[in-house]
């Protein structure tokens, strides 16, 4: 029986339907105990799901239709299933069968360090179970820890006094000022979650929250240690810039009463999470961990939707209980590439609020805001510490309307906005040909490539730096985003086609892999050169060595460069995936969908692509139905975090 099973697994692997790892993992499990075909298929599915960002396999889905989880049709699923023989009748039968296997540990029973864990009706690889339970208990502890006692009237009054200074104007339209509420709520525990779409003022709010923490720190004010971080270098640089300018503007308003410039000066640069935690080559362990915690009082992390389960667990372990953690992010964006949908799970109640009576009383006392009844409820401790910002300041007009329609799953409204194409701010080419995209690339990349061809005549360093910055800035004004990697409409095919087109237009001159003007994205962290997965740079001549090339990366206000010969893991980045574009924005974003989405494209991807556009958004679809199907589909990631948070 197992021979037939593994023969089928191998055939599917050869056909590219299964990861090689999945078969190898099932074989490994079989080698350390029971090898029933039912356990084997559960292992293959668990591994496949892990590769798609799920942290566990839900037994009810295993029982119902696991093929749907993987976007598989009867073929190949039917053939694989046929080799399994008896299929357990229901989830309890699956549970019993799995618990009989020596390799499966029933969570909370006597532990023999088995590789698989069954917690309720969820089957995990042990590492994900450990991370998920740790994240759940750590965020609950933070949400509950340090909550102001209800009789702490003096503290609440102090918060109120400062909030009135920091938010002097009533909310537009006379509704709830959610930004003010978010600050008050974050003061209540050691965890604050602020979620909202682009331009809803998350950074504006967190700058005020920092001022509030600073103002109410009493004796500790002069020693308050604040750290800023984000999953990518780009997002970290943006966070730092936005917070600095918000604090600067606030310092003028607040005046001498609060030395905000001093606070800003002490904050230091924003770091990537990897660098904050002290990632080391060749090990998953970080320098900062539960035994050697970070030296901070407040940690602000932006773009939290990109944080995967393992990273969130590491971050929470490294953060002392006394520190306040503030997570900022857009819960509706794509989740991390790696397993977990942590922000989405934490913000599960954000839309409805689900605020308990104590929270409502506290908000009323600390902000003077009366939250309407329909936001009241019985959410858990995380919901009490979460606030959703609902009004976008930067992102109105057709791009905002389109993002909203997609987010609401309203394909008809999305199509209407796209067809109206107001003022050319949004455009849609249905039945697109690759030629349409190449023309767009030509128009979009022309400006930076012309700048590349015109370096400064003066040889001084300053003029050169100004030129490099202007080239990098011009490159940031336009980008092509793909939903998929492979195929004619995927990243690899398009990058090659765009290079050829730009060369034909004499905008660039290719001579082998590296050429002047080549944009590249780093695909793996490299500690030796200090470049990280997702960093984007441009190839320009090395001023010090004739004929040599360097890649220049923008780092906030500065620029750093690395010789191309030292860069190993990079790929051309005229076109990049929507996933990799998270944390970035471009004046004009063009998104491309493939001819066939294979049931794997969902609303979050389309929403994330649209919200990367600041001024213009163009959509190219060779087949419009793929857009409609994607809007109709939500990404569901199997995870036990929500359940664990309710315990
Ligand atoms: N209450 C407010 N009053 C006036 N201006 C505001 C307010 N809230 C936000 N803004 C302005 O709106 C713009 C967007 O705010 P901000 O950058 O904080 O949003 P964000 O949610 O952090 O956006 P992003 O999507 O870039 O992360 C900024 O220019 C900010 O100064």
Can you describe this structure?
It catalyses: ATP + H2O = ADP + phosphate + H(+). Pfam families: AAA_19 (PF13245), RecD_N (PF21185), SH3_13 (PF18335), UvrD_C_2 (PF13538). With 647 residues, this protein is α/β, with parallel strands linked by helices. It has 27 helices and 20 strands. A 6-stranded parallel beta sheet has the order 7-6-8-9-5-10. It has a 5-stranded parallel beta sheet with strand order 11-20-19-12-18, sandwiched between helices. It has a 5-stranded antiparallel beta sheet with strand order 16-15-14-13-17. Helix 8 packs across helix 15, helix 10 packs across helix 11 and helix 19 runs antiparallel to helix 25. The longest helix is centred in the middle third of the chain and has 22 residues. It is globular. The two termini are 41 Å apart. The mean pLDDT is 89. The structure holds adenosine-5'-triphosphate. Adenosine-5'-triphosphate binds next to helix 11.
Write a concise keyword list for the protein shown above.
alpha/beta, 647 residues, 27 helices, RecBCD enzyme subunit RecD, isomerase, 44% helix, EC 5.6.2.3, five-stranded parallel beta sheet, exodeoxyribonuclease V activity, binds adenosine-5'-triphosphate, ATP-binding, 20 strands
Describe the protein's topology.
Elements: H1 2-14, H2 20-31, H3 37-51, E1 57-58, H4 59-64, H5 66-70, H6 74-82, H7 91-99, E2 104-106, E3 116-119, E4 122-125, H8 126-144, H9 153-166, H10 178-186, E5 191-196, H11 202-215, E6 226-230, H12 233-254, H13 260-267, E7 271-272, H14 273-277, E8 298-301, H15 309-318, E9 324-329, H16 342-346, H17 357-367, H18 381-384, E10 386-389, H19 397-407, H20 411-420, E11 426-430, H21 434-452, H22 461-475, E12 478-482, H23 491-504, E13 519-522, E14 536-541, E15 549-555, E16 558-563, E17 570-572, E18 575-577, H24 578-581, E19 586-592, H25 603-610, E20 613-621, H26 624-631, H27 641-646
Bound molecules: adenosine-5'-triphosphate.
The site of adenosine-5'-triphosphate (ATP) has 12 residues, from helix 11.
């Amino acid at each position: 029986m197992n021979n037939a099973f593994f023969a089928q697994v191998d055939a599917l692997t050869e056909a590219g339907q299964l990861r090689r790892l999945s078969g190898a993992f099932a074989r490994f499990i079989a080698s350390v105990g029971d090898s029933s075909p039912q356990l084997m298929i559960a292992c293959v599915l668990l591994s496949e799901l892990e590769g798609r960002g799920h942290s566990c396999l839900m037994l009810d889905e295993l029982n119902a239709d696991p093929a749907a989880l993987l976007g598989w049709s009867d073929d190949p699923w039917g053939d694989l299933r046929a080799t399994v023989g008896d299929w357990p009748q229901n989830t309890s039968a699956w549970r019993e069968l799995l618990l009989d296997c020596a390799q499966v540990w029933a969570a909370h029973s006597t532990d023999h360090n088995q590789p698989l864990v069954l917690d309720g009706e969820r089957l995990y690889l042990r590492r994900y179970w450990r991370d998920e339970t740790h994240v759940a208990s750590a965020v609950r502890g933070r949400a509950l820890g340090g909550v102001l006692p209800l009789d702490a009237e003096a503290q609440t009054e102090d918060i109120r006094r400062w909030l009135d200074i920091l938010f002097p104007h009533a909310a537009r339209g006379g509704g709830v000022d959610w930004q003010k509420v978010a600050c008050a709520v974050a003061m209540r525990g050691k965890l604050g979650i602020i979620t909202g779409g682009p331009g809803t003022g998350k950074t504006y709010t967190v700058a005020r929250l920092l001022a509030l923490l600073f103002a109410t720190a009493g004796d500790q004010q002069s020693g308050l240690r604040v750290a800023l971080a984000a999953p990518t270098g780009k997002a970290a640089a943006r966070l730092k810039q936005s917070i600095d300018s918000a604090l600067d503007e606030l310092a003028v308003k607040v005046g001498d009463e609060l030395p905000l410039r001093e606070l800003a000066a002490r904050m230091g640069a924003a770091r990537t999470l990897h660098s904050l935690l002290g990632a080391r080559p060749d090990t998953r362990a970080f320098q900062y961990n539960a035994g050697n915690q970070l030296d901070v009082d407040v940690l602000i992390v932006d773009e939290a939707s990109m944080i995967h389960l393992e990273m969130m667990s590491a971050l929470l372990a490294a953060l002392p209980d006394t520190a306040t953690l503030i997570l900022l992010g857009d819960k509706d964006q794509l989740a991390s590439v790696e397993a977990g949908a942590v922000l989405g799970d934490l913000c599960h109640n954000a839309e409805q609020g689900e605020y308990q009576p104590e929270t409502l009383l506290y908000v009323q006392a600390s902000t003077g805001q009366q939250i309407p009844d329909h936001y009241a409820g019985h959410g858990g401790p995380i919901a009490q510490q979460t606030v959703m910002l609902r009004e976008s300041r930067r992102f109105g007009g057709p791009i905002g309307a389109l993002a909203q329609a997609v987010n609401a799953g309203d394909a008809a409204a999305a199509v209407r906005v796209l067809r109206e194409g107001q003022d050319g701010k949004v455009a849609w080419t249905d039945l697109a040909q690759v030629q349409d995209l190449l023309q767009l690339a030509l128009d979009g990349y022309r400006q930076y490539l012309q700048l590349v061809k015109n370096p400064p005549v003066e040889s001084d360093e300053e003029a050169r730096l100004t030129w490099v910055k202007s080239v990098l800035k011009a490159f940031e004004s336009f980008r092509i985003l793909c939903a998929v990697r492979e195929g004619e409409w995927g990243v690899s095919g398009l990058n090659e086609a765009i290079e050829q087109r730009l060369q034909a237009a004499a905008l660039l001159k290719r001579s082998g892999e590296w050429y002047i003007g080549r944009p590249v994205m780093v695909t793996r962290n490299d500690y030796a050169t200090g470049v990280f997965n997702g960093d984007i740079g441009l190839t320009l001549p090395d001023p010090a060595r004739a004929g040599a090339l360097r890649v220049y990366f923008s780092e906030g206000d500065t620029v750093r460069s690395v010789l191309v010969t030292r860069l190993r893991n990079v790929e051309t980045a005229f076109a990049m995936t929507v996933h990799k574009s998270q944390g970035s924005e471009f004046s004009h974003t063009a998104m491309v969908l493939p001819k066939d989405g294979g049931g794997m494209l969902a609303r979050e991807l389309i929403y994330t692509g649209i919200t990367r556009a600041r001024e213009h958004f163009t959509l190219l679809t060779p087949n419009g139905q793929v857009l409609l199907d994607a809007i109709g589909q939500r990404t569901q990631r199997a995870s036990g975090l929500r359940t664990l948070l309710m315990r």
